Amino acid sequence: MVKTKIPLLSFEAHGTIAKEITFQRRDGATFSRQTPAPRDAKTLPQIYHRWDYIHYLHLWTLLSPAVKQTWLTNASRYHMTGLNLYLKTHVKHLTDMSLRLHLDRQIGSYTYDSSLNSRHATIYGAVPCPGRISTAFHFDGLDDYLSIPLTALSGAELTFLWWAKANWSALPISQCRCLSTDHSLGSNYEFRTYNNNPLQFYWGDSTDAWAVSLGKPADNVWTHFTATFKWDGSNTTTRGYQNGDFVEQVVKASRFQLPDLAFDIGKWNSSFFLGDIDEFTVFTTILPDTLIKLYSERRYPS
Q1: In the Cβ-directed half-sphere of 15, how many Cα atoms lie within 13 Å?
Q2: Of 39, 55, 145, 255, which sits with the fewest C-beta atoms within 10 Å of its C-beta?
Q3: Are 48 and 82 in contact (CB under 8 A)?
């Protein structure tokens, strides 16, 4: 038997070690390297990254030819396509995302904001529970809530998306409000319902108010809600969706300046929500209806 200094580095090697190492011969020498092992496609980071990619790929398809040509012109210096540069820019920097709470990552008394803006929410009593996507937070209707710091939500366009589950038809008014700013500060918005009526996303200040319907959800099942806000220079338009389906639009010829304030999830003044909330996201653009529908259809792979 021929003795070699490294007997495993031969093309005849086989067995469990050979399955983990690939062998190559180059310039008369034998080299080995570890066989690449792709990450599990079902891990949450991989899933979230894939969803970001799909989000911006979908928005690319809606761009005008002129805008796409601008991206192509800028990309040519890097020997890239316009689509590649667009995706590289947006997926990396999440340019239109103000806040994203997956509500499945807790760091001490905070739950992590993955929007790159570090607006982590402080947890007051709410506890993790099985969610629509991985883990969510349960609110006991007594004193549980999440507090989110200054969020700079005073732009001309905003989209709110979130999942919620509750026994809606049995909840008193005080336990139906699961998102709000501080009403005492003059301007506020809140997600609410009254006496078993359809849910609403409410915007208001000292001079005017908007209340757009989000429909009447089924009890004790995860329901996806979306509310959009747009000021076009002349009118304020709010739109409500349930499970990706358009419910109502309200248009007023006046402007409501969204408050640039901290806000709470699971609380409105001294009223607290009873139920579960998952995947709360805020975009600084109006998402198209087709993309809103995609968000409502997301599933955690089994």
Answers
A1: 6
A2: 39
A3: no
**Is 35 inside a domain boundary?**
no
Give exposure, 17-28, as e/b (b: 16+ Cβ within 10 Å): ebeeeeeeeeee
* Total of domains in the chain: 2
- Identify which has the larger pLDDT, 249 or 1: 249
Boundary (domain end) residue, out of 65, 91, 117: 91
The residue range of the domain holding 224 is: 98-296
Distance between CA atoms of residues 260 and 155, nearest Å: 9
131: domain CATH number is: 2.60.120.200
Is 139 part of a structural domain of the chain? yes
What percent of the chain has a predicted confidence (pLDDT) above 70? 70
Q: Name the range with the highest mean pLDDT among 20-34, 77-91, 288-302.
A: 77-91
Give me the pLDDT at residue 119, please.
87
pLDDT value at 164 more than 80: yes
Q: How far apart are CA 232 and CA 211, in angstroms?
A: 18
Q: What is the pLDDT of residue 201?
A: 74
